[in-house]
Amino acid sequence: MPEHTRNTNDTYDHLISLLDSSSVDYRLIDHAPEGATEAVCALRGHPASEAAKCIVLRVKVDRRTTRHVLAVVPGDRRVDLDAVRALFAARYVGFSDAETAERLARAVPGTVLPFSFEPDLELVADPEVLAQPKLYFNAARLDRSLLISGADYERLAKPRIERIAASATE
Known about the structure:
There is one protein chain. This protein is an alpha+beta fold and 170 residues long. It contains 6 helices and 10 strands. 32% of the residues lie in helices and 30% in strands.
């Protein structure tokens, strides 16, 4: 089995174990393989505002210090890189390279969970994500999604809560 497939399966199993052991109400939704937010929202039948868009960022605090952040924003918004830079008093913030993002998120692009199971990946969620009564995201697989409440997500994931979302048109 390829390494990325094994990691994705492990991440999916870890997520389901966490949900089951926490007695959280959730629903699994099978659909055609899709990782793009707008397209997968159409397959699941909900507005993009109810989706968790998950982006791994590279944050250069100074010349020697690089951190990685998993930014979670509503699916109809984008990550405000300037807000993240200010949040970490960083010199630079940009998207992580695909290999690093996949290693830290333990999932392939398009399937990144709004949870961090890696100590070197700091989780930051916009408060609009937590306010969702219904929160949808791909469950570390392109062909399966998960529905959970924003409140249950906050309780389980324990993200740092900061305003990091901007309008998709800005």
